[in-house]
Amino acid sequence: MLAALFAAYLLLPVVPLWIFGQDMLPGTVLMTRRGAIPFLGIAAMLMLSRNAPRSEARQAIVIGLIVVYLGLALVGAQAALRGIAGWLTWATVAVEILLAISLLPHLRSRETDAT
Questions:
Q1: Which residues cross the membrane (predicted)?
Q2: Which of 33, 28, 30, 40 is nearest to 9 (CA)?
Q3: 98, burial (CB in 10 Å: exposed 0-12, middle 13-18, buried 19+)
Q4: Please, are residues 96 and 72 in contact by the beta-carbon 8 Å criterion?
Q5: Which of 40, 53, 65, 101 has a CB 3.0–4.6 Å from the CB of 6, allowing a cystine?
């Protein structure tokens, strides 16, 4: 998912700009492409840590992702409510909230003892 967002924001910035109801100005295209890079970094982090055992480091990754998704949802909702972003922004807000919720089961940091 994050790798696909990276590709869309970097190679097809018109798509996210259209979804958010923004004009294709040189500055918005630049910032959209720059915004692609964190998606790639997060995707790499998740790919490399996907088989890691439960630990404080894994919990930190999960909490960080929850903060990212909820932060994106909050900024998107605020922009939509203020009329800055288009109505399709609500779809991205819904997906971001669902992604944050889907990570909640992974918050446990340590394996429970079987003894």
A1: 31-48, 60-81, 87-107
A2: 33
A3: exposed
A4: yes
A5: 40
Question: What's the pTM value of the predicted model, to 2 decimals?
Answer: 0.80
Rounded Cα–Cα distance for residues 34 and 90 (Å): 22
Q: Which two tokens stand for residue 65?
A: 């992702």
115 — pLDDT class (breaks 50, 70, 90): very low
Provide the CB-side half-sphere exposure for 28 (13 A, CA): 14
- Report how far apart, in Å, the C-alpha atoms of 78 and of each of 42, 43, 59, 91 are: 24, 26, 28, 14
Mean pLDDT for the stretch of residues 92-101: 95
Rg of the chain in Å (alpha carbons): 16
In the chain, where the domains are located: 1-50, 52-110
For residue range 57-89, list pLDDT tens digits in order.
889 999 999 999 999 999 999 999 999 999 999
Q: Which of 34, 9, 11 is nearest to 20 (CA)?
A: 9
